[in-house]
Amino acid sequence: MASEEDLKKLIEDKLKGYKFVAVSNREPYIHKVSGDKIKFFQPASGVVTALDPVLQACHGLWVAHGSGDADRKVVDDKSRIQVPPNDPQYTLKRVWLTKAEETGYYYGFANEALWPLCHIVYTKPKFSESDWNYYKLVNERFAKAILEEIGDQETLLFIQDYHFMLLPKLIKDANPKAKIALFWHIPWPNPEVFRICPWKKELLEGLLGADLLGFHLRYHVDNFLETINHNLEAKVDKVASSVTYKGMETLVRPYPISIDFEKIAKEAASKATQDDIKKVKEDLGITCELIGVGTDRIDYTKGIIEKFTAIDRFLEKYPEYQGRFVYIQIGSLSRIHLDTYKKLNDDINSLVERINWKYSSDHWSPIILIRKYFTPQELLAIYRMANICLVTSLHDGMNLVAKEFIAACSKDKSMLVLSQFAGAARELTDAVTFNPYNPEECADAIRTALTMPAEEREQRVERMKAVVKENNIYNWAAKIIQALLRLS
Ligand code: GDG
């Protein structure tokens, strides 16, 4: 187990002489105009949750798209700002995109082509030549911004996700001294799925500019190696888990991402959280004895429709829970400019309305759907007051909500009900798991969790807490940084 202190020590001892640079599409701090003031906030994103503590520990540089309407007002002449704004620990460099560039690269290629391509949930990817051209252009823009900062210095570059498949090669070609890792936060599909992508060769060549490629699971690593085997004339070494292409070796490894267990557990058990619980219950008018919760970006991969369908079935099949069980769904809107997401949001609204109409009485409705952004503290209160957390992903790289819930929950009364298709299910084997495509199974899983004998539930939750505590976010970062350092 590594702690924040261990990671800091690793960075102080081993990173001397190196620049440490993280790159992601989403910035960790966004500035927005609010009345006549400028305010900043942290977006709801797994990547930000995971990397902010890492960058704070190593005082590095983070390069990301500047998406806030006040972002330009607070940066220096190189588009940089020190963050967190109220306690500066590292530098954020913002990259600017026009509306057309953002539409083509982000909404188009990344989220209408790559996202559905990699998540096997039967949503067809859209491949557009124009989106692809924007994707290339934006990857080049990021490469330029990074090279402006690192020049030809020895650098450890840690790139995030499917938005930047071309970036490793662009940087490696310009600065061979840079040691590059890319972490892939979503699943990697099997070769039969990936083969339909018209630009697969360029994308794979782009990724192989990295010295190290990280995935959440061994299963994704194996899928990636198979994909290379099918598409490039490369040497794939399954034993060493590496690919050699045009004389350069790329190591391919599983690094299951995690959370800051200690921080979440401590805050969730605090008096302040108890006070927040009272307030949240009052605000939402909750008097029920049994509470279920869920936090998801409104995304078709998260199985939100399937979740509500299962809750409907649960209340129908086990009517004794009517009036006794309430489910709180926190759903931050996401990618709402895309028709698929807009439609999903509308479908969720109608379904919730229908289910609430079907069961509600004077003082009770089964589902409370909240779209407002919750502060991290409010989220902890929601987790802490819950009897169950319901994660219904149809396909998910990891799912940090499952781990956050385990860190925050009270072992005396809580249980995680977890889709078998979330990466987290490989580690949290003591959760009640189910197939989200089967409402019957999910309904039964909810009941199993709510009726589990206290002793068994406590033991299972204790074991899951130990797993997340051991394999925490600092461990994840330390393992990747150590692997990169071994390559230098
Ligand atoms: C991708 C992969 C992988 C949500 N609403 C609020 C809020 N959140 C936070 C949650 C959690 C994060 O957002 C969501 O993380 P997930 O892992 O569940 O999902 P994705 O955003 O799809 O993340 C996923 C992840 O990358 C990391 O590699 O696990 O598989 O799809 O941390 O708590 N946070 C706050 N208010 C909200 O209203 N404060």
Helices and strands, with pairings:
Layout: H1 4-14, E1 19-24, E2 30-34, E3 37-41, H2 46-58, E4 61-65, E5 80-83, E6 90-95, H3 99-118, H4 129-150, E7 155-160, H5 167-174, E8 179-183, H6 191-194, H7 200-207, E9 212-215, H8 218-231, E10 235-237, E11 242-245, E12 248-254, H9 261-268, H10 271-284, E13 290-297, H11 304-317, E14 325-332, H12 339-359, E15 367-370, H13 376-384, E16 388-391, H14 400-408, E17 415-419, E18 432-434, H15 439-451, H16 454-470, H17 473-487
Parallel strand pairs: 1-4, 1-7, 4-6, 7-8, 8-9, 9-12, 13-14, 13-16, 14-15, 16-17, 17-18
Antiparallel strand pairs: 2-3, 5-6, 10-11, 11-12
The structure holds GDP-alpha-D-glucose.
GDP-alpha-D-glucose binds next to helix 2, strand 13, strand 14, helix 13 and helix 14.
Description of the structure:
The protein is an alpha/beta fold and 488 residues long. The protein folds into 2 domains: 268 residues, Rossmann fold; 209 residues, 3-Layer(aba) Sandwich (Rossmann fold), CATH 3.40.50. It contains 17 helices and 18 strands. It has a 10-stranded mixed β-sheet, sandwiched between helices. The two termini are 24 Å apart.
List keywords for this structure.
488 residues; Rossmann fold; single chain; binds GDP-alpha-D-glucose; 17 helices; 45% helix; 2 domains; globular; six-stranded parallel β-sheet; ten-stranded mixed β-sheet; alpha/beta
